[in-house]
Structures are given as structure tokens and as C-alpha cells.
Automatic annotation (TrEMBL):
<keyword id="KW-0853">WD repeat</keyword>
<dbReference type="GO" id="GO:0000932">
    <property type="term" value="C:P-body"/>
</dbReference>
<dbReference type="InterPro" id="IPR036397">
    <property type="entry name" value="RNaseH_sf"/>
</dbReference>
<dbReference type="InterPro" id="IPR028889">
    <property type="entry name" value="USP"/>
</dbReference>
<keyword id="KW-0378">Hydrolase</keyword>
<dbReference type="InterPro" id="IPR028881">
    <property type="entry name" value="PAN2_UCH_dom"/>
</dbReference>
<keyword id="KW-0507">mRNA processing</keyword>
<dbReference type="Pfam" id="PF00929">
    <property type="entry name" value="RNase_T"/>
</dbReference>
<dbReference type="GO" id="GO:0046872">
    <property type="term" value="F:metal ion binding"/>
</dbReference>
<keyword id="KW-0963">Cytoplasm</keyword>
<dbReference type="GO" id="GO:0006397">
    <property type="term" value="P:mRNA processing"/>
</dbReference>
<dbReference type="GO" id="GO:0031251">
    <property type="term" value="C:PAN complex"/>
</dbReference>
<dbReference type="Pfam" id="PF13423">
    <property type="entry name" value="UCH_1"/>
</dbReference>
<dbReference type="InterPro" id="IPR038765">
    <property type="entry name" value="Papain-like_cys_pep_sf"/>
</dbReference>
<dbReference type="InterPro" id="IPR015943">
    <property type="entry name" value="WD40/YVTN_repeat-like_dom_sf"/>
</dbReference>
<keyword id="KW-0269">Exonuclease</keyword>
<protein>
    <recommendedName>
        <fullName>PAN2-PAN3 deadenylation complex catalytic subunit PAN2</fullName>
        <ecNumber>3.1.13.4</ecNumber>
    </recommendedName>
</protein>
């Protein structure tokens, strides 16, 4: 090649150097490179072939062998010779990676690595390729499959990586640290601080680890400690490249000049033995890249961005005759790399071309390369090409199979009519947050849909198990349409219909004829009501949870115990778990598991409720186990019942925990055994369970045994092999739990078909077994008898209806074998008569488990579905509530409670009733545990306590705590008042007739609770005045009605006596348990929001004392003005003032009614009160000039008339 007259600083080629160019191509693109290259319509190269075969390669001298186009017009950002195969990898500024095979540079693979950032470094490993972008490290197979994708911090700007060993990688960039990443675990193991930020190049030798910085320095670090051992200040400007070989380090870069940075033509060379610079090497090109090419001597290859390449010895003089020129298509060379065999050089330019220079006609990239695996050739005949941009191409050109049927296109146009799609309803979240200005409404984008896209859903089909048709936005439009669904009425989702009086005129007794308490469903995340009922009707859980008490603010065990106490006290009235769900929403693990539903998702039935309740089941057992395990004597309240759990264990663990041995057997023969425990099991169904449509009999006991003693093949880490290997993992049971909890995991059509098929097989077998003894329907007398409970030992023949859709047994028998095996079989009453009672077999390690509860998912397209529970209520519950001793199955559907036949609890019509959770309990379980409940709340909770507020001062204290000699006794009076704030606004809609209908009431939270002394010398003085700290967002402080101002509930800025809701709740619970009588105005709402159940004989509510039947309720302000001549609640409400006024009104009531002995005279007083109220329009007159004397009550003048 002739390089005479070549300017070393040449940046681009003259057009005369090229032959005629295609006008559609770039002006600088060499057409010779694109011979036999096919371009797609956008100009991207599809295939590249080598240049003319007449190129002569001289042995020992580097010459160009091939050039190829990676991506036309996209600059090459990095090139890398594969260290394991004969391949060259190229990365572009567009984030695209391309690989070329062999010296002929045949395209092997091409794929996108990153959509927005350029590829900055490539490193080849045995099983794949590492690609580094700005803040992403991606490991991909050579064919393009992703092995792992590791996201770095968004603030990182990575530029270099270095593989220190087969599994450890260092990543550096423009930040002040270097990351060490373990490639086996794909985790960051170390973060090394760098004194000089900007590590863009890294090299390694046997002695040192080298870092090249953007400041022009090269630091030498110890390989083990990462400490800086030495530092070379190479360039005053910036570092361009450096390389290390033997005892020499050579670097090129930029120096600072008056006009800025300039490329320094002196290479800095350092002797690593003496740690000092030797004579710089002056070169004749502007060095941008350099590499040692140690073949016979330690030659250096110095390359400029304009394409000049010079070879020289690092300790000699550079000879201008050793310069050759690379012919880049673009103006600049962007990358340079040397193969491991030193036989090939690769250059990448700014126009997307790659140039391969070799020193032999048939070079090899590696000394020992393995064979490359190629894709199989396409065996399908190619179809004729069609120009998709031509709109007039006939569709007949597309080959279709011949048919004799009538085509849809032959349908007459007269028989067709356009049917436009109905516009989908506006998202409920948009309507809830929308604000109006005039007739225009605007709302924040909920981000639930893609931009400019409106997805239309197809009609509901049978092949999608989890899909439901859209739920009507308004409950008013959800009319009952029996012909459209098959859900039984008692299983449908129940809702509370609110009126002007709220819940007061809603008849809960219509839904619950029993004395058991239901749970209200309108609270956020109340989907777990059915599971709360299941836990409550487990007698050991109910008792042991109520004995628990700790000082943790949001303890689910404590809150569940308080809720159980309310369920105990209730006589058929529904309760609400607002405090329990409030604590539930604050737990981070619940949010991480996706258990916290948004209001819109819960209302519309979005999400799979079956999966949700099964995750909740696992979470609540684990959380209760942890909460009760953390209970220690120094942290607990006095008398908190800590004797029920030993150290390291909890009562939940004693009831539910099952000890397991997990064995992992590698194919190398190494076996690892570790002990573990679980609180529940998940059903694992046989593989291909729905493939045999004829139906194969498979007992529930067999499936349960397979799920407990699970065996599976999986990839796991083997310490002996030191890598992931296929292993056989088996699980053996060591100890049977007292309560067996099973998640059914019926999440797809496959599992549903398995249940349906097994039920059909069981039905056929039962028909053969009973023969003609089965009646077509249940006899009336038999049904009545079963509702009362059949006597033991009396076997009754079931009816056909009772045998349909039944696969689940009522009892199972489990036995531990000597070799840690497990025998499981279905158990019937007939088996008990044959083998004897279960108590006798327990001595031999045989246990009988009885079905206690089933939780099912009701599929109802109108409401989005719901969750209900069938629970077998034991004798102790009936004894306490109804005074009878028998067992009965009940359906619990929020506040709907109804007795059912026992067969209904195990009948699952998979079209609408899908099993989710099963609870089996050991027979005679209650006899193993102490079921006495000791109230853990003591009088010490009423003593003085510190405030959470940082700015509270003692001079601002508004109450005096009770002294020991003032502790309340049974029948003592306590004045109470509470103030609230709003967390969620009321949701309502207007009916077509213009009336307002409440869909969901506002969610209130207690903000202040005040209790005043009702007798004694300090009567009227508060002993509790607590402001309740809240972590939830407050929508409205209701300052006009509550007196609560923003900041009063914030511990950082509040000046009030701030405490937790749990602390104040315990004070009120102690007062209730001790038997005091509460005096207040509108206490029913106060106790409802506080979430307390108070016996009716302990509530003295002035709103009912001064009330006539079928008349309006009278406000406290009007009563105080009328009877006491007090004008209260002027600007805002004060709970201390309201509680005192209620006490005075109660005293006035006793005075007027002669302690309730003269109701007729008091009735006259009430008539005068209502007459005066109507005249005054129930408004207290404002003072004019002078106020009336305090001793001139209004009602006295009325009586005088």
C-alpha cells in the first residue's frame, strides 16, 4: 500500500478516493463494502459478504482481510474478540449487539441489548456474553437469550468492567466507587471507595489491579485489599488509553493547553519494578488507542482516530515507516481490540463498519477455540414476497386452503348493519378524584391504561377461568337477574344500604338469626372477614390470642384479641375490624405481598380473591407467630399471660407448626439435609391431571400426602460441585400439627377440572356403593333431624343432592411411620366403628383430623366475586351464646350468618364455588390446651404516661390522671366524649328521581378521647384527654365540629398530650371490664368509631334519655341551653366541655325524673322541650347585649306556663 502524502491528522476521506456512489447512501460510505449487501427499506444491512478475494495477505505483516457493516450509520461503541469461540462481538451506540463468526465475518447473531444507552464494554464468558451499559449489566447467551439482567443505581455512569476470576466482576465508572458483583448469585458483594473518581479503564496483572482515571492518573491497587499501592500522574488533561505487559505500563492521553485539551504525542512508559517513568516515546500519530502485541517482541500498536496505526517498541524510537492506514468508512475510528492469539486486529468506525486486519490469510482468534453451535437451517419453503406498502394488492394472492363452504364475504350487505362499540365507562378512580370548573371536569391520570389506547374486552368466555365481566359501576344498577347467574342468594355479596340515619334503620337481623356476630364489609381490605371468623371459631386460638398483650403499637395479635373479645360480647350484632385492619395496613410485609388493596380494586373485584386470601392466610399465621414469639416479660404489660409460650416458640407455632426435613440429593451423590418448619401446606396436584377425560380416581388423602411429602426436581447449588446442579429435593414430616391448614391453589382451569373430575368419579362410586338406598331428595324429617345434629353411631344414607360435587372428606386419618414416612387415608364414621375411637389410636401415633372450615371463592360476574366461609361451630360456642351443647355448620358471608347442612360445606360447583382454604383439626383438640382466658389488662394502664409529642409542656396539660385511691369501681360514672377526623370522604350518587343514595360512608378515625370523673370531690375533672397519633392521611380535620387542627396529631409539632390509639383503647377496655357506666351524648357512634363493644347496661346516652319515640334526636348544644342555660360549642367543639355537659344533663335527668320513678312528669318536660325546639327551629339564640342569668334555665319558664 502506498501512503505517500498522507496527512497524519486526516479526519475524513476525499470523495475522489471512492468510485461512483449510490445517491441514497452516505457520502462517505465505501460502496465496495456493500457489494452483495442487501438493504431493507430503512437502509439497515441484512447481510454482508467479504470484499474481493484478490486481497493478498503477506505473512507476518498486518493487512486488511475483511470489512463488514454492523449497522449502517450507527457508530460502533465497542468491539471484542470472543475468548472461547472464533467470534468477534460488536456493540453500537444504539445499544445493539452483533456477532460475526470466523475470519470471513459471517453474521452469527444480532439482538438489542439496551433501548436507550450505548454498549460501553463487552466481556465474553464460557456460557455467554456480558454487556455493560450506563447503569445496566446484562448477561446474555450468544444467541441473544437473557441469562440475567442486573440493574445498577440510576445515578451510576458505568464505563468499564474487569473479570478478576471466573465468578467475580468489577464495574467502574464516573462515580467515586467500584462495585464487586458475584456472577453466581448476581448480587453486589462489595463497594470499594475510590479516592479519585472517574474509573474508565481497568487492567490486571498478577501483582496489581490498575485503574485509569479521567483526571489523567493511573492508580495501582492491591488485589486483595484494594488499597492504593502507587499512583502515576500520567497526563495533565485526561487519559485516553493504557495497557500493561510484563513490567511495563504504557499510556496515552491529553495534556492541558491554553486553548484546551490537546492530544499528547508522547506516550508515557513506566517501569513497574522501580515504579518510575522511563523515557517517553514520541510517535507520529495522535494516539487514541494502544495495545501491547507481544509476539516475538513487546510491540506496541498505537492507533489514531483518523485511522493511522503505528507499531513500535516501547523502549525504542518510533519509525515513520511503520505506519499503515486503516480505511474507515466514517471519519473516525471508535474502537480497537486485539485477539487473544495476537493474529487479528479489529477496528470499528463511526459509520457502523468493522474492519478486520490479520497477519495471515487464515488467522485464528484464540489459541484453543471450542466449536461454535449454529442454528438449524429453515426447513420451511419460503412464501412469495408481498409488498405490504401497496394497498391495491388483491387478497387472493395470499394462499388459503380450498373450501366448499360459503364464505363470510358472500353475506349480502343488506342483511348486515353497523354495530359500533359502546364507549367503556369512565374509571371510578377518575370520577372519585375529579374536580369541576363550570361544566369541565379534570382529574389526575390514574395510569391504568396506555396512552391513546382504549382496550375493549371480549365477552366472557368459558376458557378463561379468572376473567369476569365488568362490574356495574353503580350498585343501583346491580339488579338481581336469576337467569344470568347461578349463584345461590345466600352466597352473593352482601352490601349495607345506607339511609339518612346511616346504619340505624338497617335490619341486620334479617341476615342473621343467630347470636353469633358477623363482620361489616365496608372497611378497606375487609376481604379477610371470612378468615377472621375461621380463626375465632378455633377455640385454642380464640383463648390464647386473648391472653396476649404487648406494648407494640401495631401488633396484629393484640388487635385480633380485641376483636375476638368484641365477638364474644356481641349477641348477634355485627362487629367491625377497623382497628385490626388499620394495624394490618401499617405492616410493610403486607404491602410487599400485595395484600393491601386499593378501594377501587376492592369495590370492582379486581384481582384474584382466591390467591389473595391464600396469601393472607400464610401471612397472618406467620405474623401472629412472630408477634407472640416476640413477647417477653420486660416488654409486656403486667399480667399479659406470657406463660403460654416458651422461649423461641409461640402458641401459634404449637398449634400450626409442622417440623420438616428437607433433603437435597445432587446427581454427584452429595446429600444435604436441613430442618425447617411450616405453618401450612399447599396442595400439589398430579401432573397431567386433566388429560384423561375418562376420570381417574384419586383420593384427597393421596393428593394431600403428595403435597406434604413433596418430591421435585430442581436446579440447586451444590457445595461439592460448586455450581448449580439438577437435584432431587424431598420433604419428610417429623411432627404432625394440631391444626392442619391447606391452601387449595385452584388458580386455573387445570386445577378446577381436576376437582370437577374427581367429584364426578366420587359420585359414581357412591352411587354404586349405596345402590337403591339413595333417595332422590332429602326427606323433610331427615333434614330437620340433621339440623339438630345426628346422634353418634347412627349412620344415615345420603341423598343424591348431598353426593354431587363432593370430593373432600370430612375426616382424614394420619399416621407417622418409623422411617419418617406418612400414611394418609380418608376416614368415615364407618371406619371409626371398625377401628375404634380416635383417642385410643393416638397412643400409637395415629391421629384423626376433622374438617373444621372451608373458605371458598364465589365467582359472580355482577359483583366481582366474594369470599365466604363454612365453619363447623363447636359445643363451647353454642354453650356460651345459646345455652345448648351441639355442633352445627354455618355459612359466614360477612354479616350474613345462616346454618347449613354439613354436606353443603364440601360441595364445590366449580362454575361458581371454588375452594380456597381448608382447616382440619385434631379430634379432641380442646382437651390439650388451657382454655381459660385471663384478662391481661390491669389498672396500671390508667396511670400517668409520657406523651409522644416533642413540644408538649406540663403547663399545657388538660387533665389530671387518676391516683391509686381514685381507681373506678363497678357502677361509677364516667363522662366520655370523642372527636374524629375523616380519612376518606363519603361516596354517594344521585338516583334518577333526584334522591341521594350513599354507596360507601365516610371513613372516620378517632382523634381525641376525653374521660371526666363522674363523682367525688374532683367531679368534672378529666383524667383522660388523649390526642391519638395517626400515620394515615387525613382528608378533613373537621375543625369546626371536632376542634382538631392540622398538626395536633403530628408528634413532631403537636403541643397536645399525644398517644397511640392502642394505649387509649386499653384504658377504655379496662373501664368497660371493671363495670363503669359511661355518660355521654351520641355514644353509639363514638364506640363504633373507636371500635369498642360496650354492654348496653353500661351506656347512659343523653341523646336517648331526652328523646321521645318517633321524634328527632336533639343536639347537646340545644339541651345544654334549654336545661342548663349553657351556651357550648360556640366556635368549635371541645370534648372536655361536651363530656362535662353530658354529666350535668344526666344529673338533671335524675332530678327531673326522680331517679326514673316519675316517668309521666318527665314526659311533660320532654313535650315542652320539643315545643320550644320547634318554635326556635332547634337553634340556640345568639346573645344580644347581656346574657341571661346562669340560674334561669329555659325549661323552668316553660313549665310555669
Amino acid at each position: 500500500m502506498n501512503f505517500e502524502g498522507l496527512d497524519p491528522g486526516l479526519a475524513e476521506y476525499a470523495p475522489a478516493m471512492h468510485s461512483a456512489l449510490d445517491p441514497v447512501l452516505d457520502a462517505h460510505l465505501n460502496p465496495s463494502l456493500l457489494q452483495n449487501v442487501e438493504l431493507d427499506p430503512e437502509g439497515v444491512a441484512l447481510e454482508a459478504l467479504p470484499v474481493q478475494e484478490s486481497v493478498h495477505i503477506m505473512e507476518g505483516v498486518y493487512s486488511e482481510l475483511h470489512s463488514v457493516v454492523a449497522e449502517v450509520g450507527v457508530p460502533v461503541s465497542v468491539s471484542h474478540f470472543d475468548l472461547h469461540e472464533e467470534m468477534l462481538w460488536v456493540g453500537s451506540h444504539g445499544g445493539h449487539a452483533t456477532s460475526f463468526f470466523g475470519p470471513a465475518l459471517e453474521r452469527y447473531s444480532s439482538f438489542q441489548v439496551n433501548g436507550s444507552d450505548d454498549i460501553r464494554q463487552i466481556q465474553s464468558l464460557e456460557n455467554g456474553i456480558l454487556f455493560l451499559t450506563k447503569n445496566n449489566l446484562k448477561y446474555m447467551a450468544r444467541g441473544g437469550l437473557i441469562i440475567f439482567d442486573y440493574l445498577l443505581d440510576e445515578s451510576d455512569d458505568m464505563h468499564s468492567l474487569l473479570l478478576t476470576d471466573s465468578s467475580t466482576l468489577l464495574v467502574g465508572g464516573l462515580q467515586n466507587h467500584i462495585l464487586e458483583i458475584d456472577l453466581n448469585t448476581v448480587q453486589e458483594t462489595q463497594k470499594y471507595a475510590v479516592e479519585t473518581p472517574g474509573v474508565t479503564i481497568m487492567r490486571q496483572t498478577n501483582r496489581f489491579f490498575f485503574c485509569g482515571h479521567t483526571s489523567g492518573k493511573v492508580s495501582l491497587r492491591d488485589l486483595r485489599t484494594f488499597k492504593v499501592e502507587h499512583e502515576f500522574d500520567a497526563f495533565s488533561g485526561s487519559l485516553s488509553d493504557f495497557d500493561v505487559h510484563g513490567n511495563l505500563l504504557a499510556a496515552c492521553g491529553f495534556s492541558s493547553r491554553l486553548t484546551g485539551l490537546a492530544c499528547d504525542r508522547f506516550l508515557k512508559v513506566y517501569d513497574l519494578r522501580m515504579m518510575r517513568a522511563i523515557t517517553p516515546l514520541q510517535v507520529h500519530v495522535d494516539p487514541a488507542f494502544l495495545r501491547f502485541i507481544p509476539t516475538y517482541t513487546s510491540r506496541l500498536a498505537i492507533i489514531s482516530q483518523s485511522g493511522q496505526c503505528q507499531f513500535c517498541e516501547p523502549t525504542g524510537l518510533a519509525n515513520p515507516a511503520d505506519i499503515f492506514h486503516v480505511n474507515p468508512v466514517g471519519p473516525l475510528l471508535m474502537t480497537f481490540d486485539v485477539s487473544a492469539s495476537k493474529q487479528a486486529l479489529a477496528f470499528g468506525d463511526s459509520e457502523g463498519c468493522v474492519h478486520l486486519w490479520t497477519d495471515s490469510p487464515e488467522p485464528s482468534f484464540n489459541p484453543y477455540s471450542r466449536e461454535t453451535e449454529f442454528a438449524l437451517p429453515c426447513l420451511v419453503d419460503s412464501l412469495p414476497p408481498l409488498d405490504w406498502s401497496q394497498d391495491l394488492l388483491p387478497l387472493s394472492l395470499i394462499p388459503v386452503p380450498l373450501t366448499t363452504d360459503t364464505l363470510l364475504s358472500d353475506w349480502p350487505a343488506a342483511n348486515s348493519a353497523p354495530a359500533p362499540r359502546r364507549a367503556p365507562p369512565v374509571d371510578a378512580e377518575i370520577l372519585r378524584t375529579m374536580k369541576k370548573v363550570g361544566f369541565i371536569g379534570y382529574a389526575p391520570n390514574p395510569r391504568t391504561r396506555l396512552r391513546n389506547q382504549i382496550p375493549y374486552r371480549l365477552k366472557e368466555s368459558d376458557n378463561e377461568f379468572d376473567n369476569f365481566s365488568q362490574v356495574t359501576e353503580s350498585p343501583i344498577g346491580r339488579e338481581e337477574e336469576p337467569h344470568l347467574h347461578m349463584v345461590s342468594k345466600k352466597y352473593r355479596k352482601v352490601t349495607i344500604k345506607y339511609s339518612k340515619l346511616g346504619l340505624e334503620d338497617f335490619d341486620f337481623k334479617h341476615y342473621n338469626k343467630t347470636l353469633f356476630a358477623g363482620l361489616e364489609p365496608h372497611i378497606p381490605n375487609a376481604y379477610c372477614n371470612c378468615m377472621i371468623q375461621v380463626l375465632y371459631f378455633l377455640e385454642p386460638v380464640r383463648c390464647l390470642i386473648q391472653n396476649h398483650l404487648c406494648q407494640k403499637e401495631f401488633c396484629l395479635a393484640c388487635e385480633l384479641g380485641f376483636l375476638f373479645h368484641m365477638l364474644d360480647l356481641s349477641r348477634g350484632d355485627p362487629c367491625q375490624g377497623s382497628n385490626f385492619l388499620r394495624a394490618f395496613r401499617t405492616i410493610p410485609e403486607a404491602s410487599a405481598l400485595g395484600l393491601i388493596l386499593a378501594d377501587s380494586d376492592e369495590a370492582s373485584g379486581k384481582g384474584n380473591l382466591a390467591r389473595l386470601i391464600q396469601r393472607w392466610n400464610r401471612f397472618i399465621l406467620t405474623q401472629l407467630h412472630q408477634d407472640m414469639q416476640e413477647l417477653e416479660v420486660p416488654q409486656a404489660y403486667r399480667g399479659a399471660g406470657g406463660s403460654f409460650c416458651s422461649s423461641g416458640d409461640s402458641v401459634i407455632g404449637q398449634l400450626f407448626s409442622c417440623e420438616m426435613e428437607n433433603c437435597s440429593l445432587c446427581r454427584c451423590g452429595s446429600e444435604t439435609v436441613r430442618a425447617s418448619s411450616t405453618l401450612l401446606f399447599t396442595l400439589s396436584y398430579p401432573e397431567g391431571s386433566n388429560s384423561d377425560k375418562t376420570g381417574k380416581n384419586c383420593d384427597f388423602a393421596q393428593v394431600l400426602k403428595r403435597s406434604i411429602c413433596l418430591e421435585q426436581n430442581t436446579q440447586a447449588w451444590c457445595d461439592n460441585c460448586e455450581k448449580y446442579q439438577p437435584t432431587i429435593q424431598t420433604r419428610n414430616i417429623c411432627h404432625l400439627p394440631d391444626i392442619l391448614v391447606i391452601n387449595c391453589e385452584v388458580n386455573s382451569l387445570k386445577e378446577a377440572d381436576f376437582w370437577r373430575m374427581q367429584a364426578e368419579v366420587a359420585f359414581k362410586m357412591a352411587m354404586k356403593k349405596h345402590g337403591g338406598e339413595i333417595s332422590k331428595s332429602k326427606e323433610f324429617a331427615l333434614a330437620d333431624w340433621k339440623e339438630l345434629g345426628s346422634p353418634e353411631g347412627m349412620l344415615m344414607c345420603p341423598s343424591i343432592e348431598e353426593l354431587k360435587n363432593v370430593w373432600l372428606p370430612f375426616s382424614i386419618r394420619m399416621k407417622m411411620t418409623k422411617n419418617k414416612g406418612l400414611d394418609v387415608c380418608n376416614w368415615t364414621d364407618g371406619d371409626e366403628m371398625q377401628w375404634g375411637p380416635a383417642r385410643a389410636e393416638e397412643e400409637h401415633g395415629v391421629y384423626v383430623y376433622d374438617l373444621m372450615a372451608t373458605v371458598v371463592h364465589i365467582l359472580d360476574s355482577r359483583t366481582g366475586g366474594s369470599l365466604v366461609a363454612h365453619i363447623k361451630v363447636g359445643e363451647t360456642y353454642h354453650q356460651r351464646k345459646e345455652g345448648v351443647t351441639h355442633q352445627q355448620w354455618y355459612l359466614f358471608n360477612d354479616f350474613l350468618i345462616e346454618p347449613i347442612d354439613k354436606h353443603e360445606a364440601v360441595q364445590f360447583d366449580m362454575n361458581w364455588k371454588v375452594p380456597a382454604i381448608l382447616y382440619y383439626i385434631k379430634r379432641n383438640l380442646n382437651s390439650k390446651y388451657n382454655l381459660n382466658i385471663k384478662n391481661p389488662i390491669e389498672a396500671s394502664v390508667l396511670l400517668a404516661e409520657a406523651s409522644l409529642a416533642r413540644k408538649q409542656r406540663k403547663t399545657h396539660t388538660t387533665f389530671i390522671p387518676l391516683m391509686l385511691n381514685e381507681m373506678p369501681q363497678v357502677g361509677d360514672l364516667v363522662g366520655l366524649d370523642a372527636e374524629f377526623v375523616t380519612l376518606n370522604e363519603e361516596e354517594a350518587e344521585l338516583r334518577s328521581d333526584g334522591t341521594k343514595s350513599t354507596i360507601k360512608p365516610s371513613q372516620m378515625s378517632v382523634a381525641r378521647i376525653t374521660c371526666v370523673r363522674g363523682q367525688g370531690p374532683n367531679e368534672g375533672i378529666p383524667f383522660i384527654d388523649d390526642y391519638i397519633s395517626t400515620q394515615e392521611q387525613v382528608v378533613d380535620y373537621l375543625t369546626q365540629y371536632s376542634g382538631i387542627k392540622p398538626g395536633d396529631l403530628d408528634a413532631k409539632i403537636s403541643s397536645k398530650h399525644l398517644t397511640t390509639l392502642k394505649s387509649t383503647y386499653l384504658k377504655l377496655r379496662f373501664l368497660i371490664d371493671i363495670g363503669v357506666k359511661f355518660v355521654g351524648h351520641g355514644l353509639q357512634k363514638d364506640f363504633r368509631v373507636i371500635n369498642l363493644m360496650v354492654p348496653k347496661d353500661q351506656v347512659l346516652d343523653t341523646v336517648y334519655l331526652f328523646h321521645m319515640p318517633r321524634k328527632r334526636m336533639i343536639s347537646l348544644r340545644f339541651l345544654a341551653w334549654y336545661f342548663l342555660d349553657l351556651k357550648i360549642q360556640g366556635e368549635t367543639h371541645d370534648s372536655i366541655e361536651d363530656a362535662r355537659t353530658a354529666l350535668q344533663l344526666y344529673r338533671k335527668y335524675l332530678e327531673l325524673s326522680k331517679n326514673g320513678t316519675e316517668p309521666e312528669s318527665f314526659h311533660k318536660v320532654l313535650k315542652g322541650l320539643y315545643e320550644k325546639g320547634r318554635k326556635m327551629d332547634w337553634k340556640v339564640p345568639e346573645p344580644e347585649g347581656q346574657t341571661s342569668p346562669k340560674n334561669a334555665a329555659v325549661f323552668s319558664s316553660v313549665l310555669a306556663l
